[in-house]
Amino acid sequence: MPVDPQQAPAGLTDEELATLDAHWRAANYLAVGQIYLMDNPLLTEPLRPEHVKPRLLGHWGTSPGLNLVHTHLNRVIKARDLDALCIWGPGHGGPAVLANSWLEGSYTETYPDITRDAHGMGRLFKQFSFPGGVPSHVAPETPGSIHEGGELGYALSHAYGAALDNPGLVVACVIGDGEAETGPLAASWHSDKFLDPVDDGAVLPILHLNGYKIANPTVLARLPEAELDDLLKGYGHDPIHVTGDEPAAVHRAMAAAMDTALDRIAAIQRAAREEGATERPRWPVIVLRTPKGWTGPAEVDGLPVEGTWRAHQVPLAAVRDNPEHLRQLEAWLRSYRPAELFDEHGVPRPEVLACVPSGTRRLGATPHANGGLLLRELPLPPLEKYAVEVDKPGATLHEPTRVLGELLEDVMAATAGRRDFRLVGPDETASNRLQAVYAASGKAWQARTLDVDEHLDRHGRVMEILSEHTCQGWLEGYLLTGRHGLFSCYEAFVHIVDSMVNQHIKWLRTTRRLPWRAPIASLNYLLTSHVWRQDHNGFSHQDPGFVDHILNKSPEAVRVYFPPDANTLLSVADHALRSRDYVNVVVAGKQPCFDWLSMEQAKVHCARGAGVWDWAGTEDGSREPDVVLACAGDVPTQEVLAAAQLLRRHLPELAVRVVNVVDIARLMPSEEHPHGMTDFEYDGLFTTDKPVIFAYHGYPWLIHRLSYRRTGHRHLHVRGYKEIGTTTTPFDMVVSNDLDRYRLVMDVIDRVPGLAVRAAAVRQRMEDVRLRHHAYIREHGVDLPEVADWSWDG
């Protein structure tokens, strides 16, 4: 619905209009200056080619619209004393957000050398997209930002994540019409079905339709208004339209739209919080239609620019070489009348700053955009409460994730009052055996419920939606605003967020170099329903490669763990939930698994990251082992121990060392990863010249890549997932990929000098069992009894 300014809740006076327009013009001037100028910031002399940067980079097209939104957010924040945060979806509109941060003073407070005067303005201009400067998009360096603008699609899910459990916060979210075409953004519109008007804050989406992407029109901008309204109403929103290109009229309409939207938000929250309303509300959304590159050059070289795709980046590209372009640039800059906006020292005039709020109400100074300032320690209980009893290794079985679920239940209960912990996942909490959490919190849900539904709760803090993108975006927004959480996902499908986690890791790496950014809680993944126990779902559900992707990233920010049983999973989870500024990936099974270590042993082993299980091997300390059996992952650990047992039985004279690796980065050199071993440590554990048969959970070449520089690498032989899978029995999965116990024994015989002849009969027996296995499963549909009923008897 369009807003009639004459009917608006709080129409602008002429004086207010003048101050808003002055602020907007100042922000536009500063945005253009950042793209073009490296000297003469106030145009105190005629513009010359040497005042212009040699490389012109940046995005002008979206900047005037973002400046308009920022200006009007300032007005309502100040007038209503709002606690607000803004997510800038068109992230390459960095010049606009930087300009506004400089105007409000938060930029100078963060970077004191960028003063709020002519000198500082010059430095602000030069540093933009300049060697040694700042990126062209809204980045970690930008005060007030929690959203990396380098990749599109995640603005709205980040906004909702920020609003969760922040009942006093209004999160504005500017969505560019290019970004609105992405799948993740489309799915995240459904977040309003999970937003609790009692315990959560509000999200105000602002769909900015300027009509074009880099070179093409945008889909939503070309829809008839009625069709677009139907789409937004179908998503559960009540649209408010602001359309125009005449500044005064647009200012009045935008002010009216903001007031209308915020009045409706206040009414929705009041009805839920004070009157007990439970019907799902229709939240407002502002649809802002202004020209791309508004107030910029209308035409360049005889071609239309303003209002077209040509305004997307740098409208005047040859300013240093083309006198006409230089003349147009100077005319463009002077059109904002900078002398009215800044005094002779370059300080913004009072009327420019009249709409700007103060202190932490400023968008660039809100602590919600520096969430580590608000972060509290998570109340984690002692692990002994959940530990499984292990009198001897391999005597009992537990489902590791079910045991972890009991810990998470208590964490959820302990945070019930403070509401700063959430569990997210794509419809898999119960499937992943974490359903104990429902005793402490149900699943967030604001839509219709039926009698057959279970665990749905308007105030729940378990979040499930069948969109990994949305889960990731929610959790990132939640963490970046100072809270804690865990993302549980099937291992094969966490790949859907490969690109998103990449952006988050880059964010973390950058913030580590910004002393003003306080550390935030780590982004924790629990990957289960993994490759070796997806025998029922088949090949499409079998992919352990997410850890390869993660370990390509900044070593200071990534950690990968393979706990082999329930107690080690508890220890690793406790560490991950306590950590800061990491992405932790924990891979653990949900199926019954042997218990190998007591809680005390698990803590020591996990702290070490990799170590010898002396109870599993046959070395006696009098000499070096003949062979090392290494493992990482729950199923590979079981197969290695079964192989060690076979070797003990058939080749008792062989000195076998068993090494289990929980922290996979321990294999890397210490100079390449903070958790890496020194060569001295590695050689002591794996030897320098003995065969190492390594059974690994994922793709074998990762182990080779991590350890290729080690002295004994040529003796390393890795078994793992070889992209061979189907619907079959659990043991057939390991046999098909040559990770089974019999194949491992054969590898030992093949690689220990002298065994090939001496143990030929043993090798033949191992091969015979594998052949018998293939025939047995095809006749009976289950694994061989000696495999299905195996237990450790060491």
UniProtKB/TrEMBL annotation:
UniProt cross-references to PROSITE patterns, sorted A to Z: PHOSPHOKETOLASE_1, PHOSPHOKETOLASE_2
Highest taxon, organism lineage: Bacteria
InterPro entries: Phosphoketolase, THDP-binding, Transketo_C/PFOR_II, Xul5P/Fru6P_PKetolase, Xul5P/Fru6P_PKetolase_C, Xul5P/Fru6P_PKetolase_CS, Xul5P/Fru6P_PKetolase_N, Xul5P/Fru6P_PKetolase_ThDP_BS
EC number, as in UniProt: 4.1.2.-
Domain Xylulose 5-phosphate/Fructose 6-phosphate phosphoketolase C-terminal: 590-792
Keyword annotations of the record: Lyase, Thiamine pyrophosphate
Domain Xylulose 5-phosphate/Fructose 6-phosphate phosphoketolase N-terminal span(s) in chain numbering: 12-373
Keyword Ligase: no
Cofactor(s), names only, from the UniProt record: thiamine diphosphate
Coiled-coil region list: none
Pfam families named among the record's database cross-references: XFP, XFP_C, XFP_N
Protein family (similarity comment): Belongs to the XFP family.
HAMAP family given in the database record: Phosphoketolase
Name the UniProt record assigns to this protein: Probable phosphoketolase
Lineage of source species: Bacteria, Bacillati, Actinomycetota, Actinomycetes, Kitasatosporales
